[in-house]
Design goal:
Layout lengths: L8 H4 L27 E11 L2 E9 L7 E7 L13 H9 L3 E5 L14 H15 L1 H4 L1 E11 L1 H11 L19 E5 L12 H11 L7 H7 L12 E6 L8 H12 L4 E6 L10 H16 L4
Parallel strand pairs: 3-4, 3-5, 5-6, 6-7, 7-8
Antiparallel strand pairs: 1-2, 2-4
Helix pairs in contact: 3-5
Protein backbone atom coordinates (compact mmCIF):
# COMPACT_ATOMS: atom_id res chain seq x y z
CA UNK A 1 0.00 0.00 0.00
CA UNK A 2 1.20 3.51 -0.78
CA UNK A 3 1.29 5.19 2.63
CA UNK A 4 1.27 8.62 1.02
CA UNK A 5 -2.20 7.95 -0.36
CA UNK A 6 -3.58 7.93 3.18
CA UNK A 7 -2.57 11.53 3.89
CA UNK A 8 -3.34 14.85 2.24
CA UNK A 9 -0.43 16.76 0.77
CA UNK A 10 -0.57 19.36 3.54
CA UNK A 11 0.05 16.57 6.08
CA UNK A 12 3.04 15.13 4.27
CA UNK A 13 4.85 18.43 4.06
CA UNK A 14 4.70 21.60 6.06
CA UNK A 15 3.18 24.02 3.58
CA UNK A 16 4.27 27.02 5.65
CA UNK A 17 7.90 26.04 5.11
CA UNK A 18 7.41 23.90 2.01
CA UNK A 19 9.64 26.08 -0.11
CA UNK A 20 12.22 28.56 1.14
CA UNK A 21 11.52 30.41 -2.09
CA UNK A 22 7.78 30.82 -2.43
CA UNK A 23 6.64 28.59 -5.29
CA UNK A 24 3.12 27.33 -6.04
CA UNK A 25 2.47 23.92 -4.51
CA UNK A 26 1.46 21.75 -7.48
CA UNK A 27 2.90 18.38 -6.58
CA UNK A 28 -0.47 16.70 -6.30
CA UNK A 29 -1.09 17.25 -10.02
CA UNK A 30 -0.19 14.73 -12.72
CA UNK A 31 1.78 12.50 -10.35
CA UNK A 32 1.44 9.46 -12.61
CA UNK A 33 2.14 10.21 -16.27
CA UNK A 34 0.93 7.76 -18.89
CA UNK A 35 3.39 4.93 -19.47
CA UNK A 36 5.61 5.25 -22.53
CA UNK A 37 5.91 2.02 -24.54
CA UNK A 38 9.01 0.37 -25.95
CA UNK A 39 11.62 1.63 -23.50
CA UNK A 40 15.03 0.48 -24.71
CA UNK A 41 17.35 -1.00 -22.07
CA UNK A 42 21.11 -0.99 -22.47
CA UNK A 43 23.00 -2.65 -19.65
CA UNK A 44 26.61 -2.60 -18.42
CA UNK A 45 27.62 0.51 -20.35
CA UNK A 46 31.14 1.68 -19.44
CA UNK A 47 31.10 5.33 -18.35
CA UNK A 48 34.68 5.45 -17.09
CA UNK A 49 37.59 3.59 -15.58
CA UNK A 50 39.39 4.09 -12.28
CA UNK A 51 42.31 2.14 -10.86
CA UNK A 52 41.86 -0.50 -13.55
CA UNK A 53 38.15 -0.96 -12.72
CA UNK A 54 35.46 -0.32 -15.31
CA UNK A 55 32.63 1.85 -14.05
CA UNK A 56 29.27 0.63 -15.33
CA UNK A 57 25.75 1.93 -15.69
CA UNK A 58 22.44 0.72 -17.12
CA UNK A 59 20.35 2.92 -19.41
CA UNK A 60 16.57 2.94 -19.82
CA UNK A 61 15.81 5.05 -22.90
CA UNK A 62 12.27 5.91 -23.97
CA UNK A 63 11.63 6.42 -27.70
CA UNK A 64 12.93 9.66 -29.20
CA UNK A 65 10.72 12.68 -28.60
CA UNK A 66 10.32 15.97 -30.48
CA UNK A 67 12.70 17.55 -27.97
CA UNK A 68 15.48 15.98 -25.84
CA UNK A 69 14.15 14.32 -22.71
CA UNK A 70 15.08 14.99 -19.07
CA UNK A 71 17.31 12.42 -17.39
CA UNK A 72 17.65 10.84 -13.95
CA UNK A 73 20.88 9.45 -12.49
CA UNK A 74 20.12 6.70 -9.97
CA UNK A 75 22.63 5.91 -7.21
CA UNK A 76 22.28 2.82 -5.01
CA UNK A 77 22.93 2.60 -1.28
CA UNK A 78 24.93 0.13 0.79
CA UNK A 79 27.10 2.31 3.07
CA UNK A 80 29.56 2.83 0.18
CA UNK A 81 30.80 -0.70 0.89
CA UNK A 82 28.05 -3.03 -0.29
CA UNK A 83 25.42 -3.59 -2.99
CA UNK A 84 25.17 -2.47 -6.62
CA UNK A 85 22.93 -0.79 -9.16
CA UNK A 86 20.52 -3.74 -9.11
CA UNK A 87 18.89 -2.21 -6.03
CA UNK A 88 17.28 0.52 -8.13
CA UNK A 89 16.49 -1.43 -11.31
CA UNK A 90 12.74 -1.25 -10.69
CA UNK A 91 12.95 2.49 -10.03
CA UNK A 92 14.92 3.03 -13.25
CA UNK A 93 12.37 1.03 -15.23
CA UNK A 94 9.45 2.99 -13.75
CA UNK A 95 11.11 6.31 -14.51
CA UNK A 96 11.91 5.16 -18.05
CA UNK A 97 8.27 4.21 -18.54
CA UNK A 98 7.32 7.71 -17.37
CA UNK A 99 9.46 9.27 -20.09
CA UNK A 100 12.78 9.93 -18.34
CA UNK A 101 16.08 8.64 -19.70
CA UNK A 102 17.61 6.88 -16.71
CA UNK A 103 21.22 6.06 -15.92
CA UNK A 104 21.50 3.58 -13.03
CA UNK A 105 25.14 3.67 -11.93
CA UNK A 106 27.65 1.61 -10.02
CA UNK A 107 30.59 3.29 -8.30
CA UNK A 108 33.71 2.13 -6.49
CA UNK A 109 33.13 0.65 -3.04
CA UNK A 110 35.50 0.73 -0.10
CA UNK A 111 36.66 -2.72 1.00
CA UNK A 112 37.96 -4.22 4.24
CA UNK A 113 41.52 -3.32 3.29
CA UNK A 114 40.58 0.32 2.88
CA UNK A 115 40.86 0.33 -0.91
CA UNK A 116 38.74 2.94 -2.74
CA UNK A 117 38.55 5.44 0.14
CA UNK A 118 36.47 8.59 -0.04
CA UNK A 119 36.20 10.60 -2.26
CA UNK A 120 36.43 7.86 -4.92
CA UNK A 121 32.66 7.44 -4.71
CA UNK A 122 32.05 11.15 -5.25
CA UNK A 123 34.48 11.23 -8.16
CA UNK A 124 32.64 8.36 -9.84
CA UNK A 125 29.20 9.91 -9.38
CA UNK A 126 30.42 13.24 -10.73
CA UNK A 127 32.11 11.47 -13.64
CA UNK A 128 28.82 9.74 -14.50
CA UNK A 129 26.97 13.06 -14.75
CA UNK A 130 29.69 14.56 -16.93
CA UNK A 131 29.70 11.44 -19.14
CA UNK A 132 25.93 11.71 -19.55
CA UNK A 133 26.26 15.33 -20.64
CA UNK A 134 29.04 14.40 -23.08
CA UNK A 135 26.76 11.71 -24.56
CA UNK A 136 23.50 13.63 -24.26
CA UNK A 137 22.82 13.77 -27.99
CA UNK A 138 23.32 10.01 -28.39
CA UNK A 139 20.76 9.23 -25.68
CA UNK A 140 18.32 12.02 -26.53
CA UNK A 141 18.96 13.82 -23.23
CA UNK A 142 18.60 17.49 -22.42
CA UNK A 143 21.91 18.19 -20.58
CA UNK A 144 20.29 21.04 -18.67
CA UNK A 145 17.61 18.76 -17.19
CA UNK A 146 19.35 16.08 -15.14
CA UNK A 147 18.22 14.97 -11.67
CA UNK A 148 20.18 12.87 -9.16
CA UNK A 149 18.17 10.21 -7.30
CA UNK A 150 19.73 8.19 -4.50
CA UNK A 151 18.90 6.00 -1.51
CA UNK A 152 20.94 5.83 1.72
CA UNK A 153 24.63 6.18 0.75
CA UNK A 154 23.37 6.92 -2.74
CA UNK A 155 21.27 9.69 -1.25
CA UNK A 156 24.45 11.19 0.16
CA UNK A 157 26.06 11.09 -3.29
CA UNK A 158 22.96 12.52 -4.95
CA UNK A 159 23.03 15.39 -2.45
CA UNK A 160 26.73 15.97 -3.17
CA UNK A 161 25.89 16.30 -6.88
CA UNK A 162 23.47 19.08 -6.04
CA UNK A 163 25.71 20.98 -3.62
CA UNK A 164 29.26 20.99 -4.98
CA UNK A 165 31.26 21.37 -8.16
CA UNK A 166 33.45 18.80 -9.86
CA UNK A 167 36.29 17.71 -7.61
CA UNK A 168 38.42 15.68 -10.05
CA UNK A 169 38.92 17.55 -13.33
CA UNK A 170 41.81 15.58 -14.78
CA UNK A 171 39.98 14.19 -17.83
CA UNK A 172 40.44 16.78 -20.62
CA UNK A 173 37.72 15.17 -22.75
CA UNK A 174 35.14 16.16 -20.10
CA UNK A 175 36.59 19.56 -19.25
CA UNK A 176 33.59 21.42 -20.66
CA UNK A 177 30.97 19.39 -18.76
CA UNK A 178 29.67 20.15 -15.29
CA UNK A 179 28.78 17.50 -12.72
CA UNK A 180 26.14 19.72 -11.06
CA UNK A 181 22.61 18.40 -11.43
CA UNK A 182 19.37 20.33 -11.92
CA UNK A 183 17.64 18.82 -8.89
CA UNK A 184 18.10 16.15 -6.22
CA UNK A 185 15.85 13.42 -4.85
CA UNK A 186 17.38 12.17 -1.60
CA UNK A 187 15.99 9.11 0.18
CA UNK A 188 17.11 8.29 3.74
CA UNK A 189 20.69 9.41 3.33
CA UNK A 190 23.27 10.57 5.87
CA UNK A 191 23.59 14.31 5.51
CA UNK A 192 25.51 15.35 8.64
CA UNK A 193 28.36 13.26 10.02
CA UNK A 194 28.31 15.19 13.29
CA UNK A 195 25.33 12.95 14.14
CA UNK A 196 26.71 9.75 15.74
CA UNK A 197 25.99 6.47 13.98
CA UNK A 198 23.40 4.22 15.61
CA UNK A 199 24.85 1.06 14.00
CA UNK A 200 28.31 0.05 15.33
CA UNK A 201 29.31 -1.44 11.98
CA UNK A 202 28.78 1.94 10.36
CA UNK A 203 31.56 3.45 12.46
CA UNK A 204 33.91 0.71 11.25
CA UNK A 205 32.95 1.44 7.64
CA UNK A 206 33.47 5.17 8.10
CA UNK A 207 36.90 4.51 9.59
CA UNK A 208 37.83 2.51 6.47
CA UNK A 209 36.23 4.98 4.11
CA UNK A 210 37.72 8.12 5.65
CA UNK A 211 40.97 6.83 7.13
CA UNK A 212 40.23 7.35 10.80
CA UNK A 213 37.72 8.25 13.47
CA UNK A 214 35.70 11.46 13.74
CA UNK A 215 38.28 12.83 16.19
CA UNK A 216 41.26 11.80 14.06
CA UNK A 217 40.10 13.15 10.67
CA UNK A 218 37.28 15.62 11.35
CA UNK A 219 37.71 17.38 7.99
CA UNK A 220 37.13 14.11 6.14
CA UNK A 221 33.84 13.58 8.00
CA UNK A 222 32.87 17.14 7.23
CA UNK A 223 33.66 16.61 3.53
CA UNK A 224 31.41 13.51 3.52
CA UNK A 225 28.54 15.59 4.95
CA UNK A 226 26.42 17.24 2.22
CA UNK A 227 25.14 19.71 4.81
CA UNK A 228 28.67 21.17 4.94
CA UNK A 229 28.45 22.17 1.29
CA UNK A 230 25.05 23.86 1.26
CA UNK A 231 25.03 27.37 -0.20
CA UNK A 232 22.63 29.57 -2.21
CA UNK A 233 23.78 28.05 -5.52
CA UNK A 234 22.48 24.57 -4.74
CA UNK A 235 19.90 22.62 -6.72
CA UNK A 236 16.31 22.16 -5.47
CA UNK A 237 15.80 19.09 -3.26
CA UNK A 238 13.13 16.52 -2.54
CA UNK A 239 14.01 14.78 0.75
CA UNK A 240 12.13 11.71 2.00
CA UNK A 241 12.83 10.02 5.32
CA UNK A 242 11.12 7.75 7.82
CA UNK A 243 10.84 8.69 11.48
CA UNK A 244 11.46 5.02 12.37
CA UNK A 245 14.63 4.68 10.27
CA UNK A 246 16.75 2.15 12.12
CA UNK A 247 19.99 2.92 10.24
CA UNK A 248 20.01 6.65 9.54
CA UNK A 249 18.36 8.87 12.17
CA UNK A 250 15.67 11.15 10.78
CA UNK A 251 17.60 14.09 12.22
CA UNK A 252 19.83 13.92 9.13
CA UNK A 253 16.91 14.84 6.90
CA UNK A 254 15.55 17.46 9.27
CA UNK A 255 18.89 19.24 9.59
CA UNK A 256 19.51 19.16 5.85
CA UNK A 257 16.06 20.59 5.18
CA UNK A 258 16.70 23.40 7.66
CA UNK A 259 20.10 24.14 6.10
CA UNK A 260 18.62 24.31 2.60
CA UNK A 261 15.83 26.58 3.81
CA UNK A 262 18.39 28.85 5.48
CA UNK A 263 20.25 29.10 2.14
CA UNK A 264 16.98 29.96 0.33
CA UNK A 265 17.03 26.69 -1.63
CA UNK A 266 13.75 25.21 -2.80
CA UNK A 267 13.16 22.01 -0.82
CA UNK A 268 10.31 19.58 -0.42
CA UNK A 269 10.47 17.49 2.75
CA UNK A 270 8.32 14.40 3.26
CA UNK A 271 8.59 12.47 6.52
CA UNK A 272 6.58 9.34 7.22
CA UNK A 273 5.90 8.90 10.94
CA UNK A 274 6.01 5.08 10.73
CA UNK A 275 8.60 4.10 8.13
CA UNK A 276 11.96 2.33 8.20
CA UNK A 277 15.13 2.75 6.16
CA UNK A 278 14.20 0.45 3.31
CA UNK A 279 10.62 1.54 2.69
CA UNK A 280 11.89 3.85 -0.05
CA UNK A 281 13.11 0.91 -2.13
CA UNK A 282 9.42 0.22 -2.77
CA UNK A 283 8.53 2.33 -5.81
CA UNK A 284 4.91 2.46 -4.62
CA UNK A 285 6.14 4.50 -1.66
CA UNK A 286 8.67 6.81 -3.29
CA UNK A 287 7.24 6.96 -6.80
CA UNK A 288 4.30 9.39 -6.51
CA UNK A 289 6.25 12.25 -4.94
CA UNK A 290 9.25 11.48 -7.17
CA UNK A 291 7.25 11.84 -10.38
CA UNK A 292 5.48 14.97 -9.20
CA UNK A 293 8.73 16.62 -8.11
CA UNK A 294 10.47 15.72 -11.37
CA UNK A 295 7.66 17.22 -13.39
CA UNK A 296 7.74 20.40 -11.33
CA UNK A 297 11.53 20.77 -11.70
CA UNK A 298 12.35 19.33 -15.12
CA UNK A 299 9.14 20.01 -17.02
CA UNK A 300 7.44 17.64 -19.46
CA UNK A 301 9.07 14.44 -20.63
CA UNK A 302 8.12 14.88 -24.29
Amino acid sequence: MNRFAAFPLAFMVSVSSFFAVQTPVVLAQNATPAAIPAVHHENAVVYGEADGQQLLLDVAQPPPAAEPRPAVVLIHGGAMMFSDRGDLTAHAAALGAAGYVTFNIDYRLVDEAGNNPWPAQLDDAQLAVRWIRANAEHYGVDPDRICAYGHSAGGNLAAQLGTRDTRETGDPALADYSSRVSCVIELAGEMDQSIPSIIPDDEMIFNLLLGGTRDEVPEAYRDLSPISHVDPNDAPFLIMHGADDEFVPVEHARRMTDALHAASIEVVYAELPVADHFIWLDWQESGPLTLAFLESQLGPTD
